[in-house]
Structures are given as structure tokens and as C-alpha cells.
Design goal:
The protein has four helices and eight strands; from the N terminus they run ααββββαβαβββ. It is an alpha+beta fold and 181 residues long.
Amino acid sequence: MKNISIAGILVIILLFAGAGVTKGEADFREVNWGMSQDQVKETEPAGQLTGEMPGVLTYEGEIAGVKASIFYLFNDNKLNRGLYSIERPQDSIIKDHETIRSFLLKQYGEPDEVKMGPEDDMTTGDLDPANPDDLYTLVLRKSVSPETIWKRGNTHIYLRLIEQDGRVAIMVDYIIFPVEK
């Protein structure tokens, strides 16, 4: 009986000790916060690089099967932010948003926050944000800006529908928290 209790306690201690270990888990795609631009470049296919300048690497890729521009942002040559930017035709952007949201829900679980706009009590007139066509119009008018937030360790993930240059776009933003300057 004594051996079972000691063994049980050891198993519990080992489980809890390992629960906080995140080695091998990437913060964004296949990289971790603090990596240099050169280190990040080694993780992505060279043929998908579309832009490079001090502090920024840009690639073409995808998230959840949806084509996206991928941005790696650096401060003092240390990665501190990753971003997917998706611009699609009106007839697919809301559907793609839901596809990405479902993917993120499977990956990170229930979100920590869900917001509908700068002020969650915005008036939308006769338009219904639950209707995809109405949601597109409301985002385009900047009447709503849906945002889903996951807080996982030192990484915060923001899924947003935003108005950008007269079109609706999807942003999936991975940011180290607290933000390192």
C-alpha cells in the first residue's frame, strides 16, 4: 500500500513537472520568439520568400488551407510577432474566416475573449452580424470589427476581420506577451 501511494505521488509530480515544459513547441509556425531573421529564414522554403528588409520577412503560404501572406516582424533582430494576412473576394472572405476560426479553435481550444467591435454595443441598423453578407458590409463600414483572442503562455493570438483599403481582410496575429520592445 505504501509503495502504491509513493508511486502515485511520483507519477503526479512528474505529470505536473512536465506540464509546463514547452520545448519543441513553436510560438508561430515553426519558429520561436527571439529567433533572428537568419534563423527564421532557415525554417521557411526560400522560394516562398516575397520580401525582406531589416525587421521584416514576408512569405506566401497558408493557414488552415487558406492562402495567406505571412509576416515575421523583428525588433533588434529578435522575432516578436508573426502575422497572417488574407485578402480574398467578398464571396469567400467570411467563409475563410470561419475556416480559420475553426482551425484555431481545434488548435488552441475555447478563446479567452470574443469581441464584436471597438464597442460591443454598436448599432448595426437592420444588418445582422450573424448573416455573412451583412457581416461583410458591417466590417467594410467599420461598424463592427470581430476579434477572437487566445492567450497561450507568452503568446497571444488575435483573429480579426478588418477593413483594409476598401476591402474586408482577415488578420491572424501572433504576438509575444508581454510585448518586448
